[in-house]
Automatic annotation (TrEMBL):
Pfam families: NUDIX (PF00293). Accelerates the degradation of transcripts by removing pyrophosphate from the 5'-end of triphosphorylated RNA, leading to a more labile monophosphorylated state that can stimulate subsequent ribonuclease cleavage. Its EC number is 3.6.1.-. Residues 12-157 form the Nudix hydrolase domain. PROSITE patterns: NUDIX (PS51462), NUDIX_BOX (PS00893). This is RNA pyrophosphohydrolase. It comes from Candidatus Phycosocius spiralis. A motif (Nudix box) lies at residues 47-68. InterPro entries: NUDIX_hydrolase-like_dom_sf (IPR015797), NUDIX_hydrolase_CS (IPR020084), NUDIX_hydrolase_dom (IPR000086), RppH (IPR022927). It is an enzyme of class 3 (hydrolase). Signal peptide: none annotated.
Length: 165
C-alpha cells in the first residue's frame, strides 16, 4: 500500500481524520458520544493523526479504537483530497484544545464488509461511543454539534454518490 500524499494542514489546526463507514445498503455508521445526551450527541468516528503517521493508517487505527472494527472488515472507497476545517468554540479553547484553533480533517470512506456483531464499542480502553446506528448520510449534519455542521455538509456532498438513494 503506497501512502497518499496530502498537502500540509492549515496552520493552527490539529491534523485529524474523519471516517464514514458505509454498509452495503449505503447507510453510514454514526455513534452517540459517551456521556453526552440530547440532539447533538452523535458523530462519525474521528481522531488525531500522530506525528509521522500515514493518514490512511490513522483512519484505520481510529476506526479500530472507536468501533472495534479491524482493517480486514473494511475496504477504502474514497477520501477527500483536501483538508476540511472547523474551529473550536470559545468554551472548548482550554486545556489541550487551547493549542489549536480547531481541527483540519481528511475524510475517508470505507465499505463495511462485516456484520453488526463486529462492532465492539468497548474494544479500546478509551470508550468514545456508548450507542450506534446506521443512518442516511444526508441526515448527519443535523445530528452533530453545530460547530462541525459545515464540515459534515461538505462530506455529505462529497460522498453522496456512495450513499443510499
Amino acid at each position: 500500500m503506497n501512502p497518499t500524499i496530502f498537502p500540509q494542514p492549515p496552520q493552527g489546526y490539529r491534523p485529524n481524520v474523519g471516517l464514514l463507514l458505509f454498509d452495503m445498503r449505503g447507510l453510514v455508521w454514526i455513534g452517540k458520544r459517551r456521556g453526552f445526551n440530547g440532539q447533538y450527541a452523535w458523530q462519525a468516528p474521528q481522531g488525531g493523526i500522530d506525528r509521522h503517521e500515514d493518514v490512511q493508517a490513522a483512519a484505520l487505527r481510529e476506526l479500530g479504537e472507536e468501533t472495534g472494527i479491524g482493517p480486514s472488515l473494511v475496504s477504502v472507497i474514497g477520501h477527500t483530497n483536501h483538508w476540511l476545517t472547523y474551529d473550536f468554540p470559545a468554551e472548548m479553547q482550554r486545556g489541550k484544545m487551547r493549542l489549536n484553533k480547531g481541527q483540519a480533517q481528511i475524510w475517508y470512506a470505507f465499505r463495511f464488509l462485516g456484520s453488526d456483531r463486529d462492532v465492539k464499542l468497548n474494544a479500546h480502553k478509551h470508550i468514545e461511543f456508548d450507542a450506534w446506528r446506521w443512518e442516511r448520510l444526508e441526515a448527519l449534519p443535523e445530528l452533530v454539534v453545530p460547530f462541525k455542521r459545515h464540515v459534515y455538509s461538505q462530506v455529505a456532498q462529497e460522498f453522496a454518490h456512495l450513499a443510499a438513494a
